[in-house]
Amino acid sequence: MIAVLALTLAAGADFALTQEKTSALDAKVRAFLDQKGRQWWDMNVPESDGRTLYDIVLKNGYTKALEIGTSTGHSGIWIAWALSKTGGKLITIDIDEGRHNEAVANFKTAGLADYIDARLGDAHEIVPSLAGPFDFVFSDADKDWYVNYAKAVIPKLLPGGCLASHNISPGRGRGYFGRGGQGGDYYELMKSLPEFETNLIPGSSLAVSYKKK
Length: 213
Known about the structure:
Blueprint: H1 2-36, H2 47-60, E1 64-68, H3 74-86, E2 89-94, H4 97-110, E3 116-120, H5 123-129, E4 134-139, H6 146-153, E5 157-165, H7 185-192, E6 196-200, E7 207-211
Parallel strand pairs: 1-2, 1-4, 2-3, 4-5
Antiparallel strand pairs: 5-7, 6-7
Helix pairs in contact: 2-3
């Protein structure tokens, strides 16, 4: 009886400590995001899209995430923040050394560096070489390469997983991409795949494709 009570107390203490750490990290991330405010330039997602990515990861309990196109880290912070709650980790890739270095500094300041593997290099080469598997992939790099990224990650995406892509507005001409160039075949490709359910997030330029279980 005493042993059982001791184990129960220990479990309760561990839970309380975990909750305390989570609350402290939440406060740190929120403070950092509030401090940065509207300063997320250089090809970052808006806050509303960051919150959507956070919600997708948290709601589905994703733990194996990949981001193609780090920029200076805004979307990565939202994704990694959710992963800090699910016990996951993010691999994020950017080819620009300046943006990469700034993102790494932002990840550290936000308190999320332990949840992120930030890689500097060419995603055209790195993405196909990754072993996976992944349950969440966010694509926000060169838009005319979206089809190639999709073809590289789809075999590594777990059933129930999600492939989200940014700057997609197919209503404006054939597969039109907002900023960053053309790549009109991507949305049509994802809509044509029977193993995926693909939709646009209302009020944003995010296309979200869930791989059916």
